[in-house]
């Protein structure tokens, strides 16, 4: 097969290219230039391409495969970075890796691969694609610590059918590194990438402020009961469930610890409350992608509401008329609007969407401090 | 797939055998041309013979040939040296070698839709009469379009402005008159020599301060020990690259374009209405990103370019085509540039590969 491999310059996608090449496939490497690396790291004179593109090219040289650098700066800025800033300005917590997978990676690269006469697109994601009785299924990776299925829920059935994820069955990252070393790839010892790729400094609110200055404007920190407890330096610095960065407001009069319960972007207000006030009984998600035909009526499943947590038992229902997914976790859960709400059935991803701000964006609480 | 079809001469020409032989001979010359002893004198003789050859070939005195490491340096040397104390005007479609040597807000001489310099606009920019350096390329690297240099030179003279001409793509392919310009940049590898040598041809008597002073070589205009193999290869290539011979390429190019347009009525040859280099064809396929075209052709064994190559290897949006007013379509054009040794079947082979690429990519873009 002729296979387009999305090569980031890291060990994972390099190993994918090497393994497919070794397997006798005609491998074509492509590396996305997503942002001006020199500008992002604020190093004077740093190349716009950065070390990762150089590494990807050296891996391709080593394998003797064609390799291309695709300029996607504009596309990435419009589809991912701007969306990232807009979400924060709406009081949400965006998940840019999903947006990137959804647009720049799986949409655009599948198109390109098909245009180039490729039979498949392969990436270094840790997920499994299994051919089921009714077409390809997306499943969790063999290594639960590396599983990236949460970030790939928005891959459409058509894109999934065209994609290959050779690392999904690897027991762990060490095994991938060992393969990269065996293949003589110069990146086998390269450290894992961290954080959000286009904010290597980690100061993501600087990026948000550049696109949406309103998200960096100061405002009040208010208790759910209406008391103003302090000030903040922009809603973009907060996410629902967060306990840090609240200053004096982090403890109610020196007593009970408080957490972000909601972000009221319209009033530039961070709303805090006790831990017990945060969980929601029903979570609503929009922009839903189904990787199986949506069941009629409520159905049991597991739900994952943030990247770093295990799926929890839940009952979900597809509201086809409103195109919304309604999920009731068995135990009420904290959900940050903007994050992904992904449904699983065991290892299999059923579908998912982006968490919406519920009708009661700010939960109504009774005097006992529990959510109504 | 068979043998690859190299059609990227404007990026670099295949090495000419005359240049290869000359360069190989020079590798065995041990001396430094600046040394006093016999070996130094021998090296000096090789260097000056090459300079004499270049001067004779382009019609300038040997003393007015400043050897550099290449076209980029020759352009930078001219802009820095002649632009000092002068206002600088650069053509909108100049190569980065010129543009990057100017200050960021340098005024641009616009081009007409066919890619030729808008001389009315140039005249308007020159009316103030302040000391000015005008930078205009002889031939554009992406479209092959030739600027009306004689008219531009007359305008500059009338307004007391200096004219620097980037002739990197034109040299060896079309007749050049260095007498029109105050300085003219050449590149060895763009006419079939090895990379690593170029020259700035100067108007007699023009003072040029150095960019790199070093040991005072090149009469104090460019320091650094001269790379003899690259320089003698450059001189030999220049001697071999004759516009009369390049005319053979025009017939191939015309056949290639006719074949394309017959196969794809939607295709556009950019700059076709203007005088052009004989070897260059800028082909616009509406709705299909140039990047995908270049990759698809490469996978089919056909080497072409889009935009100007960036060191990162990415295909960047063409400022040349944008300046010609092509808008978003500027991202849908590739450059085909026939090398001096193009075979007679190159047009037919290219049209075949291009048509297959178009069939696959146009369907997806539709």
From TrEMBL, chain A:
GO biological process: tRNA wobble position uridine thiolation
CDD domains registered for this protein in UniProt: MnmA_TRMU-like (cd01998)
Key words, A-Z: ATP-binding, Cytoplasm, Disulfide bond, Nucleotide-binding, RNA-binding, Transferase, tRNA processing, tRNA-binding
Residues that bind ATP: 6-13, 32, 124
EC number(s) on file: 2.8.1.13
Site entry: Interaction with tRNA: 125, 339
Domain tRNA-specific 2-thiouridylase MnmA-like central: 213-273
Organism name: uncultured Acetobacteraceae bacterium
Superkingdom as given in the UniProt entry: Bacteria
Active site per UniProt: 100, 197
Annotated GO MF terms: ATP binding; tRNA binding; tRNA-uridine 2-sulfurtransferase activity
Protein name: tRNA-specific 2-thiouridylase MnmA
Family per record: Belongs to the MnmA/TRMU family.
Localisation per UniProt entry: Cytoplasm
Disulfide topology: 100-197
Principal place of residence: cytoplasm
Key word Glycosyltransferase present: no
NCBIfam families in the record: PRK00143.1 (NF001138), trmU (TIGR00420)
Role according to the record: Catalyzes the 2-thiolation of uridine at the wobble position (U34) of tRNA, leading to the formation of s(2)U34.
Known catalytic reactions: S-sulfanyl-L-cysteinyl-[protein] + uridine(34) in tRNA + AH2 + ATP = 2-thiouridine(34) in tRNA + L-cysteinyl-[protein] + A + AMP + diphosphate + H(+)
Stretches the record annotates as Interaction with tRNA: 146-148
Domain tRNA-specific 2-thiouridylase MnmA-like C-terminal: 282-355
Major enzyme class: transferase
Keyword hit for ATP-binding: yes
InterPro entries xref list: MnmA-like (IPR004506), MnmA-like_C (IPR046885), MnmA-like_central (IPR046884), MnmA-like_central_sf (IPR023382), Rossmann-like_a/b/a_fold (IPR014729)
GO cellular component terms attached to this protein's record: cytoplasm
